[in-house]
């Protein structure tokens, strides 16, 4: 899993634009006595790992004065924590800073390679250290990949504070971590870095002696492109900058420093052309508008194109998911009721698994919605009903529908004469439901598209029975 600026800990993370897979670590734990000295041959992301809390970019909601994470890093907190968030948001870095507080020892395990034996080995080591007055921070990356047995092996050590557990996961811990471990830990959600966070990070890497030492200047459009490519992931941002800066310096040869890093060099070095897309400007609204209108117009290929543009430009996948959920009801509705299920599932997938994998769920939902039969009957029906309410056509609730669960209700005529539909063989019977002023008003007008073709006939039969106008008789099928 990518940390804020550091190396991966046992995860083969395919993070979209940059494949930064690292070899799996050996199952044996590694001891790191907090932040380490900088190796100038190491990747830029490793060299720029924060050494102090002041160097951490983002996560200010967790690092403010008195916040639990700040107290842990400063050495005054003693709670185990579950760090939940997307890649590149600082989970490993924060664990390392916690270990550095007051001389705590640091052990790291990857859930991809460690088993119960390795977990127990670290706990025994921590137990011996505790007798000597040393506390051990145990960092477990991808804790959601631990089996129930592996997670259970941690419980006693966490409860008795033999280890201070810092576990990282990209999945919602409510679904992936056993309840006993969850209840013994603080769950802290890390957020993707903002565009300003990424820009500040890149600028620091450009000027800092641990980074590029002022060897380059970054053109404005090149910086914007690097920020978009990062999509909130610090490691991805620094990986892109390192590749682009290396290309620019190679091209410049012995020319005077600093060398200008332009957009063309960034595009060539990361093999990703700039997409004209401003998340806060007109293009943001133009592209999402074209996306929804393409789905509404049943052009699946155009819809996928606009989805790809948004994803490539780093649009918030939650924003896309929300629009899909709205569209499923607004433009499809009862013509294909499963469209809402698919869109909602895609939105849940965005929350559960994060990017880049969640883009597949967004693509699946886009294809489903674009190819589904269309109907605007749901929004039209609600709009007509709300217009009547706004115009004052509300009326009184019929007495037989009013609440009768209190003493004296019957004397007021409330709930008297109510007929229970389940007592009828068809589960529906003649009875007035709307206020007097709205009897006979038809809000829902089903189309003949998709599933509404069958619904239309059923709605006609239901209205005839409920309103007592069913002259032909017969059973409701």
TrEMBL record:
CDD domains xrefs: AAA, HLD_clamp_RarA
GO biological process, one term: DNA-templated DNA replication
GO MF annotation: an example: ATP hydrolysis activity
Nucleotide-binding listed as a keyword: yes
Domain of life: Bacteria
The keyword Kinase appears for this protein: no
Domain AAA+ ATPase: start-end pairs: 77-192
Pfam families, alphabetized: AAA (PF00004), AAA_assoc_2 (PF16193), MgsA_C (PF12002)
Keywords: ATP-binding, Nucleotide-binding
Family membership noted in the UniProt record: Belongs to the AAA ATPase family. RarA/MGS1/WRNIP1 subfamily.
PANTHER family the UniProt entry points to: ATPASE WRNIP1, WERNER HELICASE-INTERACTING PROTEIN 1 FAMILY MEMBER
Protein's recorded name: Recombination factor protein RarA
Species this protein is from: Rhodococcus opacus M213
